[in-house]
Amino acid sequence: MAKNVVRSVSAFNNELKLKGFNAFQIGDACNTTGSYSRKDFYKICLSTGKSLINYADRSFEMDGTILFFGNPHIPYSWETISTTYAGYACLFSEDFLQLADRSESLQQSPFFKLGGTPILTIDEERRDFLNTIFRKMIEEQKTDYAYKDELIRNYINLIIHEALKMQPSENFDKHSNALSRVTSVFLELLERQFPIESIERPLSLKSAQDYAKALSLHVNYLNRAVKDITGKSTTTHISERIISEARALLQHTDWNIADIAYSLGFEYPTYFNNFFKRLTGTNPKSLRVQEV
Questions:
Q1: Are 48 and 64 in contact (CB under 8 A)?
Q2: Could you say which DSSP state residue 99 is in?
Q3: Which of 45, 117, 190, 290 sees the fewest Cβ atoms within 10 Å?
Q4: How far apart are CA 54 and CA 41, in angstroms?
Q5: Whole domain around residue 212: which residue ranges?
């Protein structure tokens, strides 16, 4: 039974990566709400039940029907409290929506951006309408219609436009300090880049500029927030976390140093060696020998 579940989750993830989109009914045997990588996919979820959602630095306790918008660049977690839980969800990549042709990034929408409104309370009438849209997406993805991707994109945009008509929910507990909020999200996003589990998936966010872009912030604002709240620069936090991961890889894997350097985002092993020695006072090879 366990092997069948693993196989189902693996098949679901492979299909999602291949198509860039997947819609499903929550509770179906083929998947669960947490069986995909939030590093890659946006999520829209229509659900009914009781849950606690932590989104960046905010918390929302929900009992009823909500529409949730998840951004892969902003850390969030979802704890289901009730024993009965139902709804629909769709996952999609930014490339699937072909946002390069649009004037505004998805991350700038009021539902997906940092500090936006990711959760809306849904009444019965609107729930029935949205249920219909999700069911249409689920059925359409199974067809051989040549333009089904475009049709599914229209359904996603229809959901977003329906949400734009509604008043934002105000039931969040917010940090009073905006700098504290930004810093909290940065630190969570930084931690989510680790551990590095495969050489085939090297570290992608390596600089303050990378994190600022992922969070749709100006790098100067991110740097000021992190420095004011923690006393350390954004670059220092990133460097210290990379060093911590480098130590773990040197001590607990048999990867060669060149592979470790590449997995941590260094183009050449010499760059990694110089970086490691500057921050630790020793070189990677010496550390590995000491541990042995």
A1: yes
A2: G
A3: 290
A4: 18
A5: 178-291
User: 92-103 burial by CB neighbour count: b if 16+ within 10 A, else e?
Assistant: bbbebbeeeeee
Instruction: Tell me: do 33 and 146 sit in the same domain.
Output: yes
Q: Is the predicted pLDDT of residue 203 greater than 80, yes or no?
A: yes
Residue 44 belongs to a domain with what CATH number?
Answer: 2.60.120
Residue type present at position 28 = D
pTM listed for this prediction: 0.60
- How many CB atoms within 10 Å of residue 76? 18
The reply to whether 153 and 183 lie within a common domain is no
- Of the candidates 60, 168, 166, 177, the residue with the CA atom closest to the CA atom of residue 113: 168
The predicted-structure confidence for 220-247, as pLDDT tens digits, reads as follows 999 999 988 888 999 999 999 999 999 9
- How many angstroms separate the CA atoms of 115 and 178, rounded? 9
Q: Is 80 exceeded by the pLDDT of residue 18?
A: no
Joined tokens for residue 19: 């198509």
Across 19-127, the runs of DSSP E, i.e. the strands, are: 21-26, 42-55, 58-70, 76-80, 86-92, 119-121
